Amino acid sequence: MGKRSVSQFLTYQDCPERWRLEKQVGVPQHPAVWSPAGSAMHYVTEVWERDRLGGTGKSRSDYLEVFQVDFDARLQAEVDASGIPLAQFRTTNKTADQPGGLDREWWLKSSGDLLDRYTSWREETGWEIAISKDGEPGIEYEFIVKVPEELDDRPEVTLVRGAIDRVFTGLPGFGVVAYDLKYGSKQGDLLQLGTYAAVWETVSDQPVNAGGWFMGRKEGNSGPYHLGAVKEWRNINAAYRRLDLAIIDGVFVPRFGTNCQRCFVKEHCSFAQVERSTLA
Ligand code: SF4
After folding, report:
1. Tens of pLDDT along 47-90?
2. pLDDT in tens, 181-191
3. Which atom of ligand 1 is nearest to the CA of 269?
4. What is the total count of domains within the chain?
5. How far from 133 is each of 136, 166, 196, 227, CA to CA, in Å?
6. Structural domain includes residue 167
7. CA of 255 to the centre of ligand 1 (A)
8. Of 137, 144, 147, 225, which sits most exposed with the smallest number of CB within 10 A?
9. How far apart are the first and last CA of the chain?
10. What domain range includes position 105?
11. Which ligand 1 atom is nearest residue 265's CA?
12. Does 146 reside within a domain?
């Protein structure tokens, strides 16, 4: 197996058949509005954090423009790559009042509230951004880190890569915490936070005892949670190793059901569950 990544683990957890179709077969993915929207929210909050750390700042409307420019650029890139027009991108939460679901217009209209929710949360907590040994701030921190050699000395499987959305200090009783930002409805997997904690301890020498998810479209955040054994390299390594073995053995059990509604490859999946409907 090649390098391990947190996102590959999360895709497999979501649906092993989806992992096979996306990563092994390489079928084209049907674009969805929520992906570039979530990425653009990550980006604008990153800009806000870096400005804050540098003691500067922009007006709220400037930050909203940062969001819009980045969002539209990402949407256009997906149109160009897929050949699918924006009007056919997948959306969530379709209702009689909002037949187009959470489309581009909804995200633009809501971006002010979503940004306010993040900045208020940050100001209310009073937490500060943690800094690594190399002076890098814990903001969208990209990493490729070696699993300790005593756990796995095969060179081809000793790397884990990913990006930690935020690392904060200043939480009484928790110390340093790793956070992931979510703009969908589901929180992530604890192994994701455990991996982030182990990585940040490696690059900072700061103990990370907890982690959580900032749920951008909901009130408040989820966590922080004590990470305990999930941040121990031996457990992290064992979990990724089992993922390797499952893939080598071709274990791709489909998790069809509500997952299918948000799946990027459902057009190519024989297990795809049909859209929700009533029998009436
Ligand atoms: S359509 Fe459903 S079963 Fe098929 S890959 Fe997607 S989530 Fe899995």
Report:
1. 999 999 999 989 999 999 999 999 999 999 999 999 999 999 99
2. 999 877 778 99
3. 4
4. 1
5. 7, 16, 16, 22
6. no
7. 6
8. 144
9. 49
10. 31-125
11. 6
12. no
